[in-house]
Amino acid sequence: MEGSNNWAMFRGSPKFLDALVDDFSEKLKSFLGEKVVSVFGVRDEFNKLQDKMKYIKSMLTDAKRMKMDDSVTRTWIDELIDVMHDADDIIDDFRSQFEKQSEDGASSWSLNQLASKLNPRTWYFAIKSCFMINDRIIELNKKIDEINKNKQTFSVGMNQIQSSKYSRQTSSIIDPDVVGQEIEHNTRKLIEIITRNHDRRKLCTIAIIGMGGIGKTTLARNVFHDPLIRNTFQERIWVCVSKEYSAIEVLQSIIKKIKPNTGEAQTISELLEQLAFKIKGKRFFLVLDDLWQYIVWTDLLKNPLQFAAIGLILLTTRDKAVASGVGAIYVHEVGTLSRRSGWELLCKKAYIEEEDDMLNLRDVGMNIVKRCDGLPLAIKVIGGLLATKNKDRREWEKVLQSKTWFSSEISEELHGALWISFEDLTQPLRNCFIYCSLFAEDFYMCREDLVRQWIAEGIIQQKENEFLEDTGEEYYNELIRRCLLQPRILEREDKFLEDKGDEYHNELIRRRPLHSKTFLQFEYFEHQSQMHDIVRTFAQCISRGDNHYGNPASLSLDYVQKLHRLSIAQEGDVAIIPGNKSDPLRLRALILYWSPPTVQDDIYHRIKNVRVLLLNGLGIKNIPDSIGDLKHLRMLDLDHTSISTLPNSICYLIRLQILHLQRCQSLQVLPQGITQLSNLRCLGLEDTPLVSVPTGICSLKFLNELKGFVVAGEQYSGDMHSGWLLDELKPLTQLRCLKLDNLQNAAIQSSILAGKCYLKTLQMSCSLPSGVSGDLPSEDNCKNIEEIFEKLEPPQCLEYLVILRFFGRQLPSWLGNLTYLTWLILVNFISCHHLPPLGQLQHLRCLRVTGARSVVTIGPEFMGTVISERSNMTPCFPKLELLRIDEMPNWEEWSIDRVPQKIFPSLLKIELENCPKLKAIPEQLKHISSLEELIISGVQGMREIENLTSHFKWVYIGNSSCEKLSNVPRVQHLNLVNCSALRCVENLDALQSLYLEDESVDHLPEWLPDFLNQHHNNDDIKLYFVCSMEVLKRCLLGGLDWPIIEQFSHIHVITNDNTAFMEYQKQPYSYNTNL
């Protein structure tokens, strides 16, 4: 890193300004290439501005060698940063004037194209605007000259420091601070994989991935020093590669550890030959720690190491692409420490050894561990800080409540681990990463929302022949791949047993079925992520002064006026931003993700340069006419607000690209001006009860996302109507995502969707026609909706399809022909008696069927196969991973006996919920080797569950009528919830944890003693038990049921109301309760 505090002063750093200058210079170069710039007489002043950019660039070359705590340097840079944003606004205004005056202008057009659309009347206004813009450029150039007069005091060449790159080195020496069961479990798991695979192939690679400071190296050390590894391999070699590696040094290091004398070899080719010679015929175990580039393996080490007899390579990396690049057969992602293990580590680093100190400081310490969010490096750093303090609650509380978390006191080690990851990002990725710090702690960011905001801010670089949205998704995935964002895991895990009784904290995994509230919840979770707290703190530090998240009322006016992005925390009734109507703000993004609070009425007059305006929540009740003055606005998000009208001035937002009006329950009418927003890329109207919409949505030719398209049934005249005709979709050729409502009203002659070659996501929704009586529609209603859907055949490129409330008797024939479909969700198709044939959808990964209440039997036809000589050539559902069938009240039988080919070869999870009449699972499904998870809940007809031989990691049964669970020999984790009829549980040989919950019982399950007696390894089983207070007291030490439950290795018991608990561990002995 260049200087010890440069991470904390990133906005005022030369690199920050350097990136802005580069971006603006490219934009200026493109701008000056337009002939129309000369025609309107503004070229001279813009040329002067371009010269000044070159001068600033040369100054920055020297500035990068200056100390970052030089206040004069930072002031000079801060002033120029503000000027750069002003210059960007001027160019934006220049384009806006032409778009405003031209006919059908769009932001993707060149200035020359826009000028060609001017008529004689609008030429006058364009020329007048250009004179005004020219005056602004003159003033801007003068301002830059004034700032640069300070270059004498800037003292380039003085106070130079030597640039020192952050270069991490590690060794194989065991870390004395290793704590917790997680590291032991992960070590055993990796050693098992290594010993199982090391002799199956000549060279085998295994990867450990995770963000900086999470414990990858510690885990690798534990594996490296394990006696089993030591005895299995002749040579064990540890090499820290790091980002700034030398090929010669890496080779020399490996050779020296095989044989200390490296001889005369000096060049890479000589060292490669020597390595091949020394490793020939040996069995070796090589750790490549902190690997940043997979070419270290593929291009440097792989060939010479092939001369070994057996080679196992274990690498640690922050980048998932590195693991893929080396061809890792197994990738282990390191998670954070549990609260309990974090407390143990904090005690070690803070030298808390006396029991009295532990009891006194435990609750404060647990909160400190919570703030560190389980990151071992963060806990170590804070522990080291606490070691310098008195072992006193007040001292620890000061650390917990202070700004130490943001100070340089802990910055060097903690943020050094993150800085190297940050510096490796391209400038657009850095901007995207920093943007993510604008959201609340633990907030789950939706990929689509983030990408839209990045687009509106101009962060995403346009690629040829690629949508900005696709590029943005690549950026998002890259941040996840580099472990800077953490994807939301689709698990049913809730943490509890926290803040109980005497402030004792613990964590207990509690798995339950996921009851979807939205039909795309699985996909929605898959595309969500959050920022680790420590990473978020780092991002906030390097963007301090430019970005701010929190309550702005506590900030000074001077500070707020320098901010470019403000995200308001949810506090109070009104968000107070210092200053008044006459105090302009430089904000390019103003975000209020949930309200109350609402915003001040005068705020719209103060944010003239804003690009992103996101005001969500019921506290937002009206939008003033002055919204039309925000001529730079690219994104207006008013989701879930209480607005009842939108002003017609919205039509003046000619640069608007994204407009969200979803779930606005009081909004019924769209203003006619919306159809004039020719640059609109995304229009969100989903779940907003619109009754009047303007005609002409077909003019928004750049729309690529349209949610909540309300279908009208008849030809209409006039400007406003209750919905749109499907014909209005024809010109919208760029659609990537489309959600259609009220399809029962459609009048359709030919396919509207077939030619939309970019369409990835489609939701088709309808409702029973008005006047339909009874539960089921008439024959005519059914035929009509079947014809509509049959004609709406989507293109083959479709990947996500949701069909809601289809009431025909037969789903469209094209459903089984969508070659690239990966997600299919069918909800509430009440009249269908059979599921459609879907088994030959070659790319389908997730299938959910819910609410098919007329289905009684699911048979071989579901597999999409015809019994013939060729039917065994292709597996049924070859890539399906998740199958969920729920809310099927009449479903009795599931049979696939007559399907000859292989079925579900990739299936990971089956979920069966609220299907009360289903009696059994098909025999073929019980033995699928890939199957890992099974959920059976509310399936009362299934009284016996047995002979499941799949490699289950987890089985959940929530079935009050189930009497027997038998012969599930490979299940590792079993959850039994409200299984009061259960009498027999046996032959669960691989069981590691048992979760029990039943509010109706007043004793331990009757089957539990027999199960323990016939199970041979009770010491390996953990018990998690949720019960009544009466049952908990029976489980306490000395209680009636203690002799039974003490046979488990670990016990966690908690009452239904979460007020009382008991925890027990057999080895090493530990017992704790708040009773």
UniProtKB/TrEMBL annotation:
Family: Belongs to the disease resistance NB-LRR family.
Organism: Rhynchospora pubera
Keywords: ATP-binding, Leucine-rich repeat, Nucleotide-binding, Plant defense, Repeat
Domain Disease resistance R13L4/SHOC-2-like LRR residues, every copy: 606-936
Name of this protein: Disease resistance protein (CC-NBS-LRR class) family
A GO term for molecular function: ATP binding
Superkingdom in the source lineage: Eukaryota
Domain Disease resistance protein winged helix residue range list: 438-488
Domain NB-ARC: 184-352
Positions of the Disease resistance N-terminal domain: 22-104
A GO biological-process term: innate immune response-activating signaling pathway
CDD domains reported for this sequence: RX-CC_like (cd14798)
InterPro entries reported for this sequence: Apaf_helical (IPR042197), Leu-rich_rpt_typical-subtyp (IPR003591), LRR_dom_sf (IPR032675), LRR_R13L4/SHOC2-like (IPR055414), NB-ARC (IPR002182), P-loop_NTPase (IPR027417), RX-like_CC (IPR038005), Rx_N (IPR041118)
